[in-house]
Amino acid sequence: MITPIGVMRVRRQREAAREDAVRFLWPETLMLSLLVPLLVAAYLRALRRRQRAVIHYASLKPVRAAMGPRAALRRHVPPALFLLAVIAALFAIARPVTVLPLPAQYVTIVMAMDVSRSMLAQDVAPNRIGAAQAAARAFIETLPSNVRLGITSFAGTAAVVQTPTENREDLLAAIDRFQLQRGTATGSGLLVSLAMLRPDAGIDLEAELFGQDFSRRSRAADAANDRARAPLDMRAHAEPRPVPPGSWSGGAIVLLSDGRRTMGPDPIAAARRAAQLGVRVYTIGFGTKAGAEIPGFEGYSFWARLDEDTLRSVAQLTDAEYFHAGTAAELDKVYRKLSAHLAMEYRETEISALFSALAALLVLAAAALSMFWFRR
Fold first, then answer.
1. Based on the domain organization, do 247 and 325 belong to the same domain?
2. β partners of residue 325
3. Is the pLDDT of residue 63 over 60?
4. Is the per-residue pLDDT at 159 higher than 90?
5. Does residue 158 contact residue 192 with C-beta atoms inside 8 Å?
6. Around Cβ 232, how many Cβ atoms within 10 Å?
7. Same structural domain for residues 93 and 109?
8. What CATH number is attached to the domain comprising 176?
9. How many CB atoms lie within 10 A of CB 361?
10. Structural domain includes residue 211
């Protein structure tokens, strides 16, 4: 399911591609294209000379009837193909480059999974957590070899389940270690994932999750045992400068949630932090939009519903996309789409070889047609 956010992003990419679709490394060589009109003029002059040298018949009607209109046009096809070959060769000499989607050389993805008790809802068979784990396993198995994956989980708190690795067996085992808990701290899950994806960003998780005062006290208590720990002001100074949202090409975060935030930091504030670092956060709302009743302790129950507005905002702030998956099959499709999308990157690539190959094919086609039709 492609959301309005995704449509807007694709539209922006197409507009950018139209603005600078192709550029040339040696644009001055395009001056050689002035030879094309000269070649056309030379061809027309050769035709006129040939017409003067031809034997005049009393009437050309029998000859024209025998040749037919197609035969009259055939003689111009090989020269036209040769002319196109010259044009393609001139473009190749100018060394054109364009932006193409190519397999990424090295990408790290962090999967943030909601493991709150609302994942016990059975509106998705067999239940949300079972379907989510099955889809995550399929996602891991289809990842290209150039992708490293890390896994975090969040409920009342957030935790690192598996640091980024290429070992698929470790990742599959991490999926099986999920344990459901109370609460939904979506912001905590996003911040822990961001700190794992960008360890160079100097994110102070204690300050982000529990407040500045707690972070200062914690550092003061640990200072005697760990002198290498940097003060808060030095960490803030070491943080990288803000960059445009979505501009970091080293990886992304895929966050799945089925409910509303009930505790922890604001996920919108966490999304702004990710946007400043250029990290895209793709969000997935899992479960039926109507919600489901979750049995609680001592006979109590609660109703779990998606918070699509927040998930959309997180994706929009980070220049990513939001997806809704109401069934296990839809979730599997979302993961497959993300697997194909995140393993690609847009790179400026020289395409001179393509124009050279086109020129060679056109020359061969012109020669083949000339031999087949005119035996010369």
1. yes
2. 286
3. no
4. yes
5. yes
6. 14
7. no
8. 3.40.50.410
9. 13
10. no
